[in-house]
Specification:
Radius of gyration: 16 Å
Shape: globular
Structural class: alpha/beta
CATH architecture: 3-Layer(aba) Sandwich
Number of strands: 5
CATH topology: Rossmann fold
Length: 179
């Protein structure tokens, strides 16, 4: 582990639902860090709306966290990953809410974040202002899966993309009576 570039990194996302693009992002981020915090965004109202738009049952943050923990549990590097839930309730949307987001993230992660890893660059500019000493890194998630797979695509038609979802999410959705 001596060749790691960063002590502490963080990956932040809704993970709604978690999929193999997220897995690729997490694994590639961990390759560069001694420890990695995977931060699950929790805004219940927004989550409920996104689930309803996809005609999906509500998937709370604890459930999404469990699916991620279960997926990574058997891997030898799992001990270097910590899963946290960031309360984003009552947080204004980006970029207006960026300062409060940074404050909440800094309070949640129990170490100085050396690198923030992203699957896209849409929030880097806003976050860089509040994390000036933190490296912002975009990692192409699609390389390991399919570049067109995004959470929004999966929420619209999860059956079409179930092979890209984590096992726990597929089992959950498959067990729902309406599916």
């Amino acid at each position: 582990m001596q060749d790691k570039k960063f002590n502490t990194g963080a990956v932040i996302g809704k993970f709604l639902p978690p999929h193999m693009g997220h897995v690729a992002l997490i694994e590639k981020a961990l390759e560069q860090c001694h420890s990695l915090f995977v931060v699950i965004s929790d805004n219940a109202e927004k989550t409920e709306k996104l689930c309803e738009e996809g005609s999906l049952p509500f998937m709370n943050a604890e459930l999404r966290k469990k699916w991620l923990i279960d997926h990574f549990a058997a891997l030898p590097h799992a001990k270097f990953i910590k899963f946290l839930i960031l309360d984003e309730n009552n947080l204004k949307p980006f970029p207006t809410g960026a300062a409060e987001f940074a404050k909440r993230l800094t309070a949640l992660v129990p170490a100085k974040i050396d690198a923030l890893f992203y699957g896209e660059d849409s929030k880097i500019k806003d976050n860089k202002k509040y994390f000036p000493d933190t490296e912002m890194i975009v990692i192409e998630r699609g390389v390991a899966t399919n570049p067109d797979i995004q959470g929004s695509s999966i929420r619209k038609n999860w059956l079409k993309f179930k092979n890209f979802m984590l096992e726990g999410a597929v089992a959950f959705l498959s067990s729902m009576p309406q599916f």
